[in-house]
Write a structure and sequence with these properties.
Elements: H1 5-22, H2 27-48, H3 68-99, H4 108-119, H5 150-166
Amino acid sequence: MATNYVLIIAIVVLVACGTVLVLERSLTRILVGFVMLGNGVNLTYLVASGPAGDAPITGLGDGEMTDPLPQAMVLTAIVITLGVTAFGLALAYRAWQLTGHDDVQDDLEDDLVRRRADLDHPSASFDDIAAGIPDEEGEDLPSAPTGVTDEQLAADLAAEDAREEGR
C-alpha cells in the first residue's frame, strides 16, 4: 500500500494553519481556522481509510470493496463544519454590528482569575467552610480604590495574608 505523501503534507499544513487561526482574536480568522481544521480532518479520514477499491455495493465487482464508513464520517463532518461556519458567521456579523469590529473581548471573570494568579491570592474554596461560599461574580476579591496601582494592591493583599496567617 503506497501512501500519498502530498495528501499527508496537505493535512499537516491545513491542521497547523487552522490551529494557529483558531487561536487568534478575530472571529473571521477563527472561522477560517475552523474551516481549515475541518478540511484537514476530512482528508485525514480519507487517507486513513486505505486505498481506493470498488464501489461498496455487493455483487458488483471482482476486486476489493472500499470501506464506506470513512466516507460516511466525512459527509457527517462536512455537515457539522457547515453548521459551525454558519454559527460563526452569525457571531461575527452580530459582533461587527454591535461594536464595529469582530475581535473577541476579554472575559472579566478570566481577568479576575489572572489577577489573582499574578498576585498569588487564592479565592475562597469550597473546602474552607469558615470562608463561606466563594462569590461567583468575583466580589470576594478586594477591589482597589481609584488611583491605586497594582503594586500597592499586591502589597495590601500580602499584608492581609500575613495578618490572616498570624491569627
